[in-house]
Amino acid sequence: MKKGIVIGAGIGGLTTAIALAQKGFDVTVYEQAAQLNEVGAGVWLAPNGLKVLEKLGIVNEFLEIGHELELISIKDTNDVTITQIDGKEIRKKHNFVTLAIHRAKLQKQLATHIPEGKLILNKKCVDYTQTNNQVTVNFQDNTTETADFVIFADGIHSVARKKLNKNLNLRYSGQTCWRFILDNYTLPSDQKDKMFEIWSDKKGLRAAYSQLSKNQVYCYITNFINPGQQDNKSTIKNDLLNLCADFQPIVKKLIADCDESVIIRSDLFDFKPINNWIDKNILLLGDAAHATTPNLGQGACQAIEDALVLADELSKTSTINEAYVNFQNRRIEKTHYVTNTSFKFAQVNNTTGISKKIMKFFIRNTPKSINNKQFDKLYTIDSEK
Ligand SMILES: Cc1cc2nc3c(=O)[nH]c(=O)nc-3n(C[C@H](O)[C@H](O)[C@H](O)COP(=O)(O)OP(=O)(O)OC[C@H]3O[C@@H](n4cnc5c(N)ncnc54)[C@H](O)[C@@H]3O)c2cc1C
Q: How far apart are CA 312 and CA 296, in angstroms?
């Protein structure tokens, strides 16, 4: 059986290693971090991601540690609904509703399925070279590893993506995001199984929150602002409270009640969709191949979807390169769609005044049949087609 290397123990890399091991491949994951301590934030896993975990036979353990959301509601600061996703209808069609889950818990739970000795931490990949049939990976500690195939699941700043697409720059969405988790916290009982995203009339200003587990709540805020800035840790809570002054009291309460030391600030970048994920026996996967802004809540789900399709192709195709090409053919359209739609969503949200009013009017009046088509497109996984 062929030997493989996965670079990066994020959501994409770990799911890929699990899917490949289930097909009998000998795969080792190398991760730059010394510990699996993903950022303390939440992630919303849509039904497509959960369907893949179900196919891998591991979904129930994630349902247990996350929180299922029966309604996703986008509304304005006056509580007027802009659009919503009814979990009951989605569950009927797609078996699952969106699951809110702590990133670190998700990552650690995935890691429990990696066999002993097959997840090596503290190994930062800096380069790779290829011979006819093999790939050698170089690590920062001057060690190397050789395998028949390598999958780079090393995120938006991927070493291999930079080598393969030299002139590609990251694209700033215009928005910065603040994320935080409140421990030992529950939402009012009428909001417990719901996720709310609230749109202000100001450029790029949104706040969203949901229960993340029985006793944790996750909240994020976005705003239109230049990238590369830093928070003043001593004023950050007041700064966010001022920013969100027009929002519903619950948003202000979440900000007021959070511990400012856990607030994470991230500038939201992606890169324009690329058509080249392959270099002979190396492949880009997840954000390394198709980074997306988080407006559709699909980045992690797309990385998870990649895993299943790749394992399918590698297990049935005679050469690695042929499997990679088939994989790219099967995944490129949907991932490009997600990246482009999500980026447009951010730009639409970066409007203000009359443009924003018109945009909200259109979204509010989009026929249900069109919305349903979009959900079907996102939530249907490749093996269901
Ligand atoms: C603010 C925000 C909110 C989001 N919310 C959602 C959401 O609700 N739902 C959703 O589906 N998606 C969401 N996403 C997107 C999601 O987080 C990513 O799409 C997903 O994490 C991609 O997984 P990945 O494994 O491809 O990359 P990553 O998660 O970036 O993992 C890459 C891994 O590779 C490691 N690595 C990097 N370089 C090297 C190297 N040189 N050598 C070894 N290891 C290396 C990193 O340490 C990391 O562990 C959000 C993103 C952001 C920024």
A: 26
- pLDDT tens digit string along 248-288? 999 999 999 999 999 999 999 999 999 999 999 999 999 99
Give the separation between CA 344 and CA 179, rounded to whole angstroms. Answer: 22
Give the pocket of ligand 1 (CB within 6 Å): 7-13, 30-33, 43-44, 124-125, 153-155, 159, 177, 179, 266, 286-288, 294, 297-301, 303
- Count CB-CB contacts under 10 A for residue 199: 22
- Which residue is closest in CA terms to ligand 1's atom 38? 154
Q: For the chain, what's the residue count?
A: 385
CA 362 from centroid of its chain's CA atoms: 27
Cα–Cα dist 51/313, whole Å: 18
Q: In what order do the strands lie in the sheet with 71-76?
A: 81-86, 71-76, 194-199, 206-213, 216-224, 171-183, 264-270
8: left (phi over 0), alpha (psi -120 to 50) or beta: left
Domain residue extents for the chain: 3-169+270-384
Q: What is the pLDDT of residues 101-130, one digit of tens each?
A: 999 999 999 999 999 999 999 999 999 999
Q: Which residues contact 246 (CB under 8 A, 6 or more apart)?
A: 77, 200
Given the CA of residue 38, which atom of ligand 1 is nearest to it? 49
Q: In sequence order, which residues have a C-beta less than 8 Å from that of residue 256 and are 6 or more positions away?
A: 237, 241
Rounded distance between C-alpha atoms, residue 219 and residue 239, angstroms? 16
Q: pLDDT digit string (tens) for 36-88?
A: 976 779 999 999 999 999 999 999 999 999 999 999 999 999 999 999 999 99
What CATH number does domain 3-169+270-384 carry, 3.30.565.10, 3.50.50.60, 3.90.70.10, 3.40.50.300? Answer: 3.50.50.60
> Could you give the CA distance from residue 307 to residue 286 in angstroms, rounded to a whole number?
9
Q: Specify the pTM.
A: 0.97
Confidence of residue 174 (pLDDT cuts 50, 70, 90): very high
Whole-number pLDDT of residue 38: 64
DSSP 24-92: T-EEEEE-SSSS----S-EEEEPHHHHHHHHHTT-HHHHHHHSEE-SEEEEEETTS-EEEEEEHHHHHH
